[in-house]
DNA sequence: CGTGGCGTTGAACTACGTCAATGCATGTGG
DNA sequence: CCACATGCATTGACGTAGTTCAACGCCACG
């Protein structure tokens, strides 16, 4: 009865990696089928831009895999990254005029994109989807507010420690846990991008990382690789490191 | 047919000051009547706490009037104010376990509170309300992200300028516009609280304010009063002040 | 008229930013 | 395989915005 139309460029929602984690969780098969036809998969290369800050809001999307950054700019061109988006995160601004932030893929990524117009209409007529979206937005608001604390009240060391811990956590599908709770992962961001996330400069990021390395908290086997050696100690630094004499 | 049960401690939604601005806008009379019976008005004195960070999420609320602060704390007890809530803003965490931030009234305030459980259930069965809540949450997320830019990338002068302009804007019901676009209003926050909002110290706030006063941008007729004398100039400072020699 | 909160002001310190040199990979062309 | 160019990362030296510490002023309130 359904699914004769080729959905999502040949990739059905049923088989989607984030089927049960994204906002499309809880949808019935027939609803999913409709959504299936509205959206399409899109592969992004690292560095590719999906949404531009201030443009008309024409697209919304779900992250299937990869890491993307949400960012905005100050009057004088300094960038502030507003957050990172991982698998099953939602991107874009439904029910709004303009996209409030730019979205760029940091790694190669897959997203499931919708015309905002179509998506809005579908959402308005499918309360279960809208409810999912609401829950996700509320959670995102919580997450964003926790970042405010980081930006407003933490020093460079705490910021870096937090950043590494959160990244390790968000990536734990990808990263390999060796014995002794060592966690190794690939950094999806350059030093400059880390600086933009944390409201620091590239030099401060670099200095803090090498300091943590020298202190044995982490290892930096390559530019884009990090290993967390002392998870607990790193948590202490994130919490409130008092570096007295 | 409806409204025999005394609603909201004798105050019906129909007559509510924020009837058409809060999430209850767009509700039909009969829906509103149900909501009416679920909620109750509560008056708060300045300084009174409505929600505590980390507690079980039992209440949600709408701000009717007054100014409240949302805040969280670092491990070492420093406070970061996550935002201010004005009339028709929504407070609390529906569909969640714990309240992610503390809420305290800065001025005397009136709120319309609901048991989270009741509210959640009503929302889930009334898509129009849930849609309103979604729109509001999305807007709040946008607003929060703009604050991140402020916290992460602005200097003290810009932060203060932004703060005063936003406050003047949010309070424009209350504040008196004299000729020459002068805007006078009462500060709902102490210097310490302003510092907590902006991620600064009380001394820096004080110094910046007196500097702006000396430069003729604002006047400070009393501790808790501000007059904006040169609105445009203040906007320039907020945007990107290059203070060269 | 004292007492206790805020707020302001000053002086010294410091974490981070800025500027500039150097290091270290990866790629390209001889 | 080497020379060298290019782009990111590291490291150092120095400057400064904002913090910290401390004294003092102002005003409300008993």
TrEMBL record, chains A, B:
Annotated SUPFAM superfamilies:
cAMP-binding domain-like (SSF51206), Winged helix' DNA-binding domain (SSF46785)
| Name this polypeptide is given | Crp/Fnr family transcriptional regulator
Q: Give the UniProt keywords, A-Z.
A: DNA-binding, Transcription, Transcription regulation
User: What would be one Pfam family of this protein?
Assistant: HTH_Crp_2
Pinpoint the HTH crp-type domain residues. Answer: 154-232
Keyword presence, Ion transport? no
Q: Which organism is it from?
A: Croceicoccus esteveae
Reading the lineage from the top rank, the first entry is Bacteria
């Amino acid at each position: 009865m359904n699914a004769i139309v080729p959905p999502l460029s040949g990739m059905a929602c049923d088989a989607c990696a984030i089927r049960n984690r994204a906002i499309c969780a809880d949808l019935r098969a027939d609803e999913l089928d409709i959504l299936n036809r509205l959206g399409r998969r899109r592969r992004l290369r690292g560095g590719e831009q999906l949404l531009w800050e201030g443009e008309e809001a024409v697209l919304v999307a779900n992250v299937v895999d990869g890491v993307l950054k949400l960012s905005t700019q100050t009057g004088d061109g300094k960038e502030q990254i507003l957050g990172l988006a991982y698998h099953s995160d939602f991107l874009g601004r439904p029910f709004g005029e303009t996209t409030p932030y730019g979205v760029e893929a940091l790694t190669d990524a897959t997203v499931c994109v919708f015309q905002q117009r179509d998506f809005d209409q579908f959402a308005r007529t499918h309360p279960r989807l809208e409810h999912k979206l609401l829950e996700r937005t509320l959670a995102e608001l919580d997450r964003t507010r926790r970042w405010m604390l980081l930006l407003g009240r933490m020093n460079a060391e705490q910021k870096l420690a937090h950043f590494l811990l959160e990244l390790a956590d968000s990536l734990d599908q990808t990263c390999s846990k060796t014995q002794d709770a060592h966690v190794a992962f690939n950094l999806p961001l350059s030093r400059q991008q880390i600086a933009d996330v944390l409201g620091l400069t590239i030099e401060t990021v670099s200095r803090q990382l090498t300091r943590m390395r020298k202190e044995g908290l982490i290892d930096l086997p390559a530019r884009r690789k990090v290993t967390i050696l002392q998870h607990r100690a790193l948590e202490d630094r994130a919490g409130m490191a008092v570096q007295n004499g």
